[in-house]
Amino acid sequence: MIKLAYTEAGEGTPLVLLHGNGESKEYFAGQMEAFAARYHVYAVDTRGHGQSPRGEAPFTLTQFACDLEQFRIAHGIETMHLLGFSDGGNIAMLYALAHPERVEKLILNGANLDPSGVKRSVQWPVELGYRIATWFAGRDPKARANAEMLGLMVNEPHIAAADLAKLTMPVLVIAGTKDMIRDDHTRAIAAALPDGTLAILPGDHFVAAKNPEAFNRTVLDFLQG
Questions:
Q1: How far apart (Å, rounded) are the C-alpha atoms in residues 116 and 112?
Q2: According to DSSP H, which parts of 56-182 are helical?
Q3: End-to-end CA distance of the chain
Q4: Widest pairwise Cα distance in the chain
Q5: What is the tens place of the pLDDT at every residue in 96-129?
């Protein structure tokens, strides 16, 4: 078990924020103040990201979901709202599937069920970088770390759309109009959820950072609705 780095602010119902691949809790700089006005916000660095240690456990999204459960227990959180961006959204899905009783409301921003959900124009350079990093991983620690990080996008996740029927809590699915996740993939995720709501906001994959006012308003309307 490792201790995950995090930033917290506010009071009330816990709202946990999970960043994307290769990023850190700082991604949510534009959300903390707005969300902390109504919720007890935890922005968490996932394993091997930001200030959180890599540890010895497998570097997988499933392991990151297990880390989140340990974080919940360590901080005495009974139930929470959970917001995940990109790979953070994929972790949030995996966590909610494993621990549905712990998630009151779920927000998935730019998530995907499997690697095919990413547009090829984005995915093929990632695959190329992964192959190159893997080639040098045996002799270069930096290449090995890069291969692990890119491998999350190349090899994961693998969530069956049918499994989303198990997520009976209210779920908000958010994407940008020019997102790197295929539009039909995002819409399929929302349609597969028993209580799913879809929001397409002006912007790209990083709409939370680039269009925080619209993103924050959409999330808060959903949480308070």
A1: 8
A2: 61-74, 87-98, 120-136, 141-155
A3: 36
A4: 53
A5: 999 999 999 999 999 999 999 999 999 999 999 9
